[in-house]
Amino acid sequence: MHKQNFKIILSFLLIFSSTLIFSQKKFTIVLDAGHGGSDHGANRSYADIGRVAEKDVTLAVTLKVGSMLEKNRDFKVIYTRKFDEYPSLSDRTNLANRSKADLFVSIHCNSSQRPTAYGTETYVQGPNQNDENLEVAKRENDVIFLDEKDKQTFGSYNPSSPESLIALKLQQNKYLESSLLLGGLVEDNFVNKDKRFSRGVFQKNLHVLRMNAMPSVLIETGFINHPEESHYLASEKGQSEISESIYNAIIDYKKAIDRKTGGSISVKKPEPEKPAESPLKNDFRILLLSSPTKYNDGDPALKGLNYILPLKDNGQYKYYYGVTNMASVKDINLKTAKDAGFRNAYAVGFMPNQKLLSGYYTIEVYTGEKLNGNSFILQTLKDVERNKENGVFYYTYGKVFTLEDAVKLQKDLETKGIKNTIIQKVFK
Ligand SMILES: [Zn+2]
Fold first, then answer.
1. Which of 74, 189, 271, 363 has its CA 20 to 30 A from that of 114?
2. What pLDDT does 414 receive?
3. Which residues make up the CATH 3.40.630.40 domain(s) of the chain?
4. Which residues pair with 351 in a beta bridge?
5. What does the pLDDT average to over 361-377?
6. Helix (H, G, I), strand (E, B) or coil at 182
7. Domain range 25-261, CATH class
8. What is the value of pTM for the model shown?
9. Rounded distance, CA 34 to CA 112, Å?
10. What beta strand segments (E) does 351-391 contain?
């Protein structure tokens, strides 16, 4: 009896496992038509064709791409919207993450203050940061504030502070390579097939990309406020060409990924979804070491870790690694620090945007020998303060009252070419 049961179970297991082996897993793609509903996106009225709204163009193109993909049995297509409605940005990314999608493609139209700007561009989530980058991030993230649920989830996310994103960005890095591949294919098709002008593939920090646990791109299909391009975007011909270019790129992308992984099971699946983690009240940084010595970026003493914030406090340089308000990321950062060799590292809480009550932050821009009046620093910055201590000259610049403002000031200096500065806490 027992033996027979065992046999039945065994043969059942065999059938079951062979179906698993022979049923090919579909490549799941989430297509995201940007904006929708009350969120019109970029829009402009023209005398001959009337109003062209981004939300309509993105939906039309998305549905065309989707219907082509649906004919291909290798693909499972999921839409964030098929109608004129507005799913929040987290609805969109949650859907993609929940579906364990292999790829996320968000379709948008561009607009610019400059009426002459035209062409296509594709964004991928990347670690690069610059001012223009942040402008785009803010523009695309503006919609976040329409939505109460998003506010709760991302209330602590501050798009004007690149520092607050580092942990999330690190997680995204592994998808960067694949996203760049698809972005390149899309832009190539726009140029070679449709004879359009491509502005390129860029790494940007966009909410809708950043929260995705899969390779993701955001395609700006053209400028709504450029008359010629807007007519193209609104036309049947334009929408068909654009969607074919995107479709072909997705097909080529899948082929390339299949070649890489040697099978039809493609990119590594994200972990099963865990219950949503709520953010902590404080930001946490990992204190790596305190030392009277100043180390510059890349100094061996920092053991190869990036994203280090040095903070001078009572004559000691304190080196902090990473910043996050999520407990799980904090733990990962601490482990990374310990693995790098900082055995005594520990997490320190910082209250976001806390004003110093007795004192201020300033930026130590230089220490060492006395600076010459025509040195780069003194030429570039006005009102640099100089102090001398034990024969060493300390030059500081600026006066702000929150750490966030100090980090911002430090980044401003970096864009002016003044690097390896230290934020200093001054007690008064
Ligand atoms: Zn848009």
1. 189
2. 87
3. 25-261
4. none
5. 90
6. helix
7. alpha beta
8. 0.52
9. 17
10. 359-368, 385-389
